[in-house]
């Protein structure tokens, strides 16, 4: 019976065959312990010299790291294992013998590991991060489908920019200028006018020359947009969505979180509603905490966001930023004309902003004014202005950065480990 490591528990005390790779091994004279992986998980195979052929035992001792093989044996209970079971190996069939696998069990530097990212993905911790990423994606679709959102795919090549062109990758589109998308938001607003509640999920690009542990050049965004939703409505959706994702990972990725030594007690507290603090109060708080350099009108940096999030020890919304430091499309705050109806959701433990969102301007005249004030080409935004000409309604939306969210939930230090093949300032390989 062929099976996989994650399905092997169904065959307790039965003989099965699993195709996989040798992750690691150790032996103690008359017993060889094989650490096997097959893509679905990691499992121990025990080879007892007295219970197998001499050829099989010799192969178990000689087989090299990352060689591929079929192992056949009986699945038995093992309470010491995270899985709760292991295999008593009876025979081994070598498929392909690996020689001089570069990522040995010793420690390697990050540049070496990134150069070998195509192989580093096989490691137990990197495997765990990708499984958590996959669960976040699965839970995302689950949440928005259950809440009657329609998935719409915006283009990756665009003629205009939601937030200006300074951080965009330029390309030629035949005889026109084009840019790699930094956000699908403007197109999602059009889709919301057709479908009410929509979301997109796709790659976005920022030509930002940053080397911090929070930044990637290419990353994935989940961008919902909702017609007839005001700013307060949107905040409720955001906190419900993030809560759903975190609780789904806690439920379905126990083994992976343990492999990463993640302190899950911090994640267990992540349930809606989340605390809210205005930008004004955040500035006051930061000054009280000794950040004398911050002034009203400044954008917050990583240390400022970390101080605010650590104070709450939960994801926290910072709401109503100054108009001058936010994009052109955000609805003015009726209680303070110098601020807009927006929010950034800051993750705890120093992971920074994971969501940016706002209520959008729905008045045609004001939107035309904002486009002019920001020095944007009105012709490029003609379709966007049409949304305000023909049946404009109040609407709101937000964008969640997948990789930062994966980093926070999995507890890894650098966002580069949350993308299967990250694109960094000085890295386009592999």
TrEMBL record:
Molecular functions (GO terms): asparagine-tRNA ligase activity; ATP binding; catalytic activity, acting on a protein; nucleic acid binding; transferase activity
One BP annotation, GO: asparaginyl-tRNA aminoacylation
Keywords recorded for this protein, A-Z: Aminoacyl-tRNA synthetase, ATP-binding, Cytoplasm, Ligase, Nucleotide-binding, Protein biosynthesis
Residue ranges of domain Aminoacyl-transfer RNA synthetases class-II family profile in the record: 130-430
UniProt entry tagged with the keyword Transferase: no
Domain of life: Bacteria
Main location group: cytoplasm
Claim: S-adenosyl-L-methionine is one of the keywords in the record: no
Enzyme class: ligase
One GO CC term on file: cytoplasm
Family: Belongs to the class-II aminoacyl-tRNA synthetase family.
NCBIfam families: asnS (TIGR00457), PRK03932.1 (NF003037), PRK05159.1 (NF003483)
Protein name: Asparagine--tRNA ligase
């Amino acid at each position: 019976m062929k099976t996989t490591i994650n399905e092997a528990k169904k065959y307790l005390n039965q003989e099965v065959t699993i195709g996989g790779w040798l992750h690691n091994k150790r032996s103690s004279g008359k017993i060889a312990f094989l650490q096997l992986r097959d893509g679905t998980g990691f499992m121990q195979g025990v080879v007892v010299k007295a219970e197998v052929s001499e050829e099989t035992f010799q192969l178990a001792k000689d087989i090299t790291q990352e060689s591929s093989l079929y192992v056949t044996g009986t699945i038995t209970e093992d309470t010491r294992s995270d899985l709760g079971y292991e295999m008593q190996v009876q025979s081994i069939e070598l498929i392909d013998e690996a020689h001089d696998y570069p990522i040995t069990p010793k420690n390697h530097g990050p540049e070496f590991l990134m150069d070998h990212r195509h192989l580093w993905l096989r490691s137990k911790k990197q495997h765990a991060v990708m499984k958590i990423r996959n669960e976040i994606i699965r839970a995302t679709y689950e949440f928005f489908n259950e809440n009657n959102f329609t998935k719409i795919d915006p283009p990756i090549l665009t003629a205009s920019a939601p937030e200006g062109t300074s951080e965009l990758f330029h390309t030629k589109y035949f005889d026109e200028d084009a840019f790699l998308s930094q956000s699908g938001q403007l197109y999602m607003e059009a889709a919301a006018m057709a479908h009410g509640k929509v979301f997109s999920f796709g790659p976005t690009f920022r030509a930002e020359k940053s080397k911090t542990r929070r930044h990637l050049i290419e990353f994935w965004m989940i961008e919902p947009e909702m017609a007839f939703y005001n700013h307060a409505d949107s905040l409720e959706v955001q906190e419900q969505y993030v809560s759903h994702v975190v609780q789904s990972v806690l439920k379905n990725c126990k083994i992976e979180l343990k492999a990463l030594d993640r302190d899950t007690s911090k994640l267990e507290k992540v349930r809606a509603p989340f605390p809210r603090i205005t930008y004004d109060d955040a500035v006051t708080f930061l000054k009280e905490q000794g950040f004398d350099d911050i002034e009203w009108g400044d954008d917050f940096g990583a240390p400022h966001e970390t101080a605010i999030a650590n104070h709450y020890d939960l994801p926290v919304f910072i709401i109503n930023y100054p108009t001058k430091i936010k994009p052109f499309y955000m609805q003015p705050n009726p209680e303070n004309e110098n601020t807009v109806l927006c929010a950034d959701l800051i993750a705890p433990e120093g992971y920074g902003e994971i969501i940016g969102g706002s209520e959008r301007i729905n008045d045609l005249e004001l939107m035309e004014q904002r486009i002019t004030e920001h020095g944007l080409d009105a012709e490029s935004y003609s379709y966007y202005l049409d949304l305000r000409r023909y049946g404009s309604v109040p609407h709101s939306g937000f964008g969640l950065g997948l990789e930062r969210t994966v980093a926070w939930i999995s507890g890894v230090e650098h966002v580069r480990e949350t993308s299967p093949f990250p694109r960094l300032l000085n890295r386009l390989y592999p």
